[in-house]
Amino acid sequence: MGAVGESFAKLPIEAKPPLRRFHQARWDEPIIFELSSPGRRGIGVPEAGVPAVELPAAVRRQAPPALPEMSQLHVLRHYVRLSQETLGVDVNIAVGQGTCTMKYSPKVNDRFVSDTRIAELHPAQPEDSVQGVLEIYWRMERMLAEISGLHRVSLQPNSGSAAIYTNIAMIRAYHASRGEGEQRDQVITTMFSHPSNAACAKLAGYEVITLMPDADGHPDIEALRAAVGPRTAALMITNPEDTGIYNPRIAEFVELVHGVGGLACYDQANANGILGITRAAEAGFDLCHFNLHKTFSTPHMCGGPAAGASGVAEKLVPFLPGPTVEFDGERYFLDADRPQSIGKVRPYLGVTQNVVRAYAWIMALGAEGLRQVAETAVLNNNYLQHKILQIRGASAPWGRRRLEQVRYSWEELYEETGVHSEDIGVRAADFGVHYWTSHHPYLVPEPFTLEPTESYSKEDLDEYAAILAHVAEEARTDPEFVKGAPYNQTVHKIDPTCLDDPEQWAPTWRAYVRKHLS
Amino acid sequence: MTHPYIPNAEPAVRAEMLAAIGVESVEDFYADIPAALRLNRPLDLPAPITSEHELVRHMGALLGRNTDTTEVLSFLGGGCYPHHVPAVCDEVNTRGEFLTAYAGEPYEDHGRFQAIFEYVSMMAELLEMDVVNVPTYDGFQASGTALRMAARYTGRSTVLVTAAIGADKLSKLHDFLAPDIEIAMIPVTETGEAAAFTVDDSVAAVYLEYPNAYGVVETRMAEIAELAHAQGALLVVSADPIALGVLAPPATLGADIVCGDIQSLGMHQSYGGGHAGYIATRDEPRLVAEFPSRLFGIAPTAVPGEYGFGDVFYDRTSFALREEGKEWVGTAASLWGITAGVYLALMGPEGMRELGETVLARTRYAMDELGAVPGVRVLHPEGVHFREFAVEVADADALLTALRAHGIFAGVRLDAGTLLVCVTERHSKDDIDTLVRAVREVQG
Q1: Is the same domain home to B94 and B195?
Q2: B92 vs A343: CA distance, rounded Å
Q3: Is B234 helix (H, G, I), strand (E, B) or coil?
Q4: Do A305 and A384 sit in the same domain of this protein?
Q5: Smallest Cβ distance to A61: which of B118, B244, B295?
């Protein structure tokens, strides 16, 4: 079809084929050091215009750093090519990164943060010169307090995981203030909560107890009953969990922990499906966190900067990171006089760009819009589930209702074909979509986790499901072909073995040159 | 109206999808949420601004209440710095593919992997160290993690930290190291550098800043490294990479772990939102094992001539091992790493050197000129300063307020009688002269 010498097709143009003919950009782009040519420059810098300073030998750099030397166009072109070899939300149906809530980040919000009245604000400016940004922080805090039902919110944490850490630091400070710091040395979490819940608690000095799912896929309440006691500092739990299953007994979990004097901390990374429907406060939680880059649409930026929000009940307010943003009815100001505060969790007030973007996003939606976000995310998820479960070899363990995402399994397909979930994902990329398996450990065999959010249309979901159906069929007819993927990508199959071998690994070009080229 | 961000909120599509699934309404999906946990009222939020035009107006009104540092003459630094951001940095980091990508896989996100690998590689050249992490949140976090890495590496639990560290950063270290690592302070001398101190075998790390919180460059680092190493401790140095075009890389002076913030390398100030942290070590497996953050490395593909990428030594991370991993890893600050890479590629070795020389010279000029104003005393005048210096005045608040009336943000208040003044390549000789004249006038 379309080969040289054949006649052209006729008008009207035929309908598109059912699966998109995609090919990722392939520029065969060298590593930037290979583009260097001595003497070239990408940008000029101002000359001093005042007498030079001679550095003492003890601190003078002896040889210039071996950075690339390139003209400006060539730096730009290199990076534009690399950007084209990257599959952002703006170019793909980004439903394949479950637990990460990929959604549309409105372009207009990016413009607010490139405005010099955000981009060129210094965080130590006088308060009267930053009333606008302080008002955004203050209003954003009020809105998230309403969305969670909790009393106050800190927008300081750098990300969801940083907010988890901030919350555990406040839990630690709270128990210490009551003289129970030594006694309460255990934190309880669940296997389907984000790994950072366990990791942050451990870092904060706690022994971690992990509840496994029961036969229904809920965290085992009997295991919780057995775990709680005078040593319990807190429960750190996600609901719905990363399986998409909502635990209907969540209030009982909270009560059990409260009953022994522990605190209950809600990881709301999966809040997208329950906005305006149920809140941390209704279930009795003392703390919660949101990821502004998940639920509130700020872009993921290749893995950050993100932004987190930590919400607390009234009794935990004294421990919030300082300073807090306050309003006296006329002016906004910073309050750093917080003697029980855990202190700083980052420089300054927060990832301001993302606070501004998230604020604009909530303002564009309002209460009704947030409810539509939640309901549509859940509808999209259930619709996609309906489509995925029609694919032979795919299943969703625990036949429970799901909210905004599902952890699926290719166990049957694997048993039939020997093709792993990871192979499916690589092959799916050949059709221009991203797909992720799951966090380790793989409690669900051959897992994959899809989270369609509210941003995608029915046609998007149909297309995504059709791609997976096609790849599953390929796995049956030609498993080696699927395992040999990718074919339409920038690069071909990677051999990862060297990445775990200290003799071979090359975490920088410098290490690569030393180990492999000299 | 179907909201522009939510295509499937359109009623006919919704009905079609519900019919396909075979349920009556979306409410059916929520059956697991008990009635007692329902919010049976709409959220109490401001009315939505669904038109983009009105949203722009609303945001414009809020932003209009800010005065930014391009409208005044600002000498504010203290951790967040007004270096020039090349237009190409903004061009690259606002590309939709990078801006909206997540932590994808090495295949469909090949460009992201390569761009981050190149960032760590250019940092490695600047630092003369072989291992650099994918950015962590900020310089505070990088220092906290670097000290924890040193404690895990040595199995010891005391760290000696320079007193020439910002109060906020020290606050973060106290919180982050609290459960099991004790912080002892190294005093600062009249020169602004670390005073003499002793190290014993309980010490995991000696920690310096380069330049430090007063803008002073530690000149005895090699000696301090020997002191630390003689007792089996590591030297951890937080260095601002913007200075390393002219300053010796800490690794060449004996530092074992180098860390810091990359905001200076192409990020706007953004009211403190432009931070990202780096951590670097030599390529020693036992030290590499202590990184909590991701490390990207080169791997071969099935086709000759192709660079593939992947995670180096993934089984250190909490992604792989939950609480048995090192600290935690999650979404951090990758795009700022890519941006810093663009910055370093634009600057090249000569640009970094020239920029360093300009900043060194103008800092010294500003110190000398301000120091000549009656009522102003420059602290640590004999020290080598990069970009910042502290001055003592009778009343810091009064001076700041008076200069504000001249359209000048004169510096960061360290205490009632001390200001930290920051000078970068963005401050011309005229700008400095304007500051000095204004100080003379209001002090006079």
Answers
A1: yes
A2: 35
A3: strand
A4: no
A5: B244
Strands (E), B188-305: 203-210, 234-239, 257-261, 277-281, 296-300
Task: Check whether residue A400 and residue A352 sit in a common domain.
Answer: no
Between positions 67 and 96 of A, the ones with CB within 8 A of B are 67-70, 72, 75-76, 78-92, 94
What CA–CA distance (Å, rounded) separates A76 from A245?
Answer: 45
Q: Give, for all 518 residues of chain A, the pLDDT tens digit.
A: 456 678 888 999 988 888 999 999 999 999 999 999 999 999 999 999 999 999 999 999 999 999 999 999 999 999 999 999 999 999 999 999 999 999 999 999 999 999 999 999 999 999 999 999 999 999 999 999 999 999 999 999 999 999 999 999 999 999 999 999 999 999 999 998 888 999 999 999 999 999 999 998 999 999 999 999 999 999 999 999 999 999 999 999 999 999 999 999 999 999 999 999 999 999 999 999 999 999 999 999 999 999 999 999 999 999 999 999 999 999 999 999 999 999 999 999 999 999 999 999 999 999 999 999 999 999 999 999 999 999 999 999 998 799 999 999 999 999 999 999 999 999 999 999 999 999 888 999 999 999 999 999 999 999 999 999 999 999 999 999 999 999 999 999 999 999 999 999 999 999 999 999 99
Count of the separate structural domains present in chain B: 3
Q: Domain of B327: which CATH number?
A: 3.40.640.10
Question: Is residue B100 domain-resident?
Answer: yes
Q: Which residue has the tokens 């501004």?
A: A356
Contact flag A117-B271 (C-beta cutoff 8 Å): no
Q: Are strands B388-392 and B377-378 parallel, antiparallel or unpaired?
A: antiparallel
- The residues in B 251-310 lying below 8 A from A, measured between CB atoms, are 252-253, 261, 268-276, 283, 285, 288, 295-303, 305-310
Position of tokens 């965080």? A123
* A514 located within any domain: no
**Per DSSP, what are the bridge partners of residue B309?**
B298
- Same-domain check for residues B336 and B195: yes
CATH of the domain at A393: 3.90.1150.10
Residue B217 near residue B385, CB atoms below 8 Å:
yes
For residue A201, give its domain range: 111-364
Q: Do A417 and A489 have their domain in common?
A: yes
Please give the DSSP secondary-structure letter assigned to residue A513. Answer: I
Q: Which two tokens stand for residue B53?
A: 């035009």
The whole-angstrom separation of Cα B193 and Cα B211 is: 10
**Per the domain annotation, does A285 fall within a domain?**
yes
Measured in angstroms, the CA of A362 and the nearest CA of chain B are apart by 8
List the helix and strand counts (H, then E) for chain A.
14, 11
In a domain, A264, yes or no: yes
**CA neighbours within 13 Å on the CB side: how many for A165?**
30
C-alpha B151 chain-centroid distance: 22
pLDDT in tens, B175-205: 999 889 999 999 999 999 999 999 999 999 9
Residue A14's Cα: distance from chain center in Å? 40
Residue B6 resides in a domain: no
Q: Evaluate whether B267 touches B274 at the Cβ level (below 8 Å).
A: yes
Q: Is residue B5 part of a domain?
A: no
B210 residue type, one letter? Y
Sign of CA dihedral B48, B50, B51, B56: positive
Enter the ipTM. Answer: 0.98
Spatial contact of B224 and B234, defined as CB atoms under 8 Å apart: no
B289 and B306 assigned to the same domain: yes
The CATH number assigned to the domain holding B412 equals 3.90.1150.10
CATH at A303 = 3.40.640.10
Is B68 part of a structural domain of the chain? Answer: no
Are B327 and A199 inside 8 Å of each other by CB?
A: yes
**Statement to judge: residues A378 and A263 lie in one domain:** no
Nearest Cα residue to B333 out of A142, A415, A98, A351: A351
Q: Assess if residue A350 is contained within a domain.
A: yes
Residue with tokens 């420089």: A347
Token readout for A177 is 């203030």
